[in-house]
Amino acid sequence: MQKTFYLLIILLAITSCTKEVKIDIPGFEEQLVIDGSIETDFPPVVLLSRSKDIYSPTNIDAFLASFVSGATVKVGDGATEVVLEEICTDNLPQGSEAIAAELFGIPVAELANYHLCAYTTFDASMWGQVGKTYYLTVTFEGKSYTSSTTIMPATTFDNLYWKPDGTLTDYGYSWARLSDTPNQYDSYKWEVKRINVGIDGQPLDASYTKTYSPVFDDDFFDGLTFDFFYENPMVWDDPTVPDEYKGYYQLGDSVVIKLSKMDRDVFNFFEKKYVQMTTGGNPFATPTNIPTNIVGGALGVWAGFSTSYDTLYCVP
Questions:
Q1: Which residues pair with 163 in a beta bridge?
Q2: Integer CA distances (angstroms), 237 to 190, 234, 297, in order
Q3: N or C end of the chain: which has fewer CB within 10 A?
């Protein structure tokens, strides 16, 4: 009887602490999404699309249908302003195929199969220059959206090197030595592609690929010189690479490393974006809202990048 009494007390305590929680989830409201960038010696490129409800289809047809045409897009540097041209993958000007393929991540031979449109200009006076601030204005369906971004002075590596990892002899990571400028905010993006040729006689990678966590800032290393490494992102989904060698560069690889600088607002966007991507589906992760530097009610980012390039040869 005593045990039964204590059990009843415990059950009453448990049930008395329960509370029904009701969460008011707001309804979906479609917004314009702006994905724009301008980097050193390259034209501005702006993609426009519409946001999608979380329960909407995720197939290729829905993806293509989300892109927006018919907007007026302007970019200026404070002295001059140009209206960007709308250019689509199935009607590209001759000679622009390679740039479009890298922008969209689609092989040149397949570009004509898709109707993807971007806004850009062939006026070289509005291509990215270090030290300039670029102003974006997008007008669509009677609304205007604005933003600005600055192309920061570039930072170059002190050194690049490859070394076998652990007990391996033919596989290792890409290492770099970087000297961060003291007493100023700096943030970086790391991208890579291999240029050694495969059995077909073509470079192994047609375009740059971002690593698992490609952006970082100097909050913890302002003014320091330090060494760090990154993995090879191209082999994670390569079925010809054994699992034990995933993430490594192989002895003999030649790798172009693209290091880009960005301002704080651009870094905040990408840093939160990659956090959300890597924690998506984790019920224990802290919810992440991706900030935007677009004014007017649109989502997305207008990003300026200064770029530097270096080549790593994977030999001891």
A1: 173
A2: 19, 7, 37
A3: N
